[in-house]
Every structure is written in structure tokens, then in C-alpha cells.
Amino acid sequence: MFGDGKLCTCKTISEEDLAAFIADCIYYEDKANKVLPIGGPLENGEMLFRLLGREPKFIKVPIQIMDAVIWVLEGLAKLFPGLEDAAEFGKIGRYHASESMHAAAGPGTGRSKVIGCSQRAARLHMQASRASSIAG
Taxonomically, which superkingdom (predicted)? Predict the structure, then answer.
């Protein structure tokens, strides 16, 4: 994670809730042509560790590291134009690592629990891990 983990937050939403939200936006006129907050809980990392039965371990990286990498890539791109895209991807990555992708003041949306989707994903991950260890 970058910084203390609070620099950028996201609000996940299950596929079922996203579909219902989109359908509601089409059906209800009061939701048309508006920016609406959507999403679920913010403590996703800890939840995923719990689902996998692991102790939460986060590596905290200062966001300035990305600034340094971008600076180096931009400098090298002057000598090697093929690195221009890498520098631009770095800028995009830095933006997404430092800017929250939800309306902080808005409530979350969701009828089903995001944890249910995460539990299914964790089960699939564990099944795939077991299958690869048996095959390998």
C-alpha cells in the first residue's frame, strides 16, 4: 500500500449489486443524469486476509517512490523514446494510487455483502492452489 493506506480508498461492490444499481438508474428517473456514490466497505485488504485465513501483512511504500520512478522514466524517454509509454503508465498508476475513486461524503450502496463475493473468490483461489499443488 502507498503511505498509511488512507491516501487512496476504494469502495468495492459485488457484481449483483452493481447490476441492480445500474438497473435502478435506468428505471428510476430521479437517478438519471446524476453522479451517484456506489460501493461497499473500505476495509477490503483486512477482509481478504481474514477470508484466506492469514494474518494481515501490508508493505507500506511512500508515494514519493512513484514520483522518483516517473522522473527517471521521463528522463530516459528523452534518450529512448520507447519509454514514453512507460512514463505515462507510471503517471496513471500514481494517480490511481493517490486519488480515491469514490465520493467520500456519499453512502455506500449494496444489498448483498461484498464479503460474499470475496468468499467465493477466496474459495476459488484455494481450489486452484490445491489443484496446482496436486498437479505439480
Answer: Eukaryota
